[in-house]
Amino acid sequence: MRFGNFESPPQEPIGEGDDRKTFVDPTNAEKVISVTKEGAEKDTYLQMKGRFYLTKIVRALLPENIPQIYQIGETREGIQTIDRERIMHTPEHAALQEARQYGTEEHEELAVKQMVKEMGKEMTDIDLKLSELGLDFSIDTNVGNYTKDETGNVHYLESFKPWEIYYQNPPEIE
Q: Cis omega before residue 171 (within 30°)?
């Protein structure tokens, strides 16, 4: 467990999405810490708590596909963090993250195609398993949310938000 505030180290993040940047935990290279970006929608306290427990449950049901979650927190300054198990990036995933940070749109498209080629069917299989658990509304199918470990298991790297507004029929909660 990490006590105190997390301050992003001077190194570059190992991953970056629309809402979060992910860094290697400076105290334990086996873990990562995702930090909510400034301007991104933040979870309420109950959503953070729900995200933690729902991700724990999904991990218990699909341990070969969902990284362990250790804690979720918010600093006094309002920075939200998620501490998770680190799954090493495949060369294709590393190329995608590099293209997103430093490359052109063309480089990113090429990296996406390589990742889909590498993991295509397995990504779909995980999505189907999550749908069978009733989590299809919570799946972000962006290819950057998947990676393959050294044993060949594909992992879904996102945590699970416990409820959201159903945009097809607002303000219904799903």
A: yes
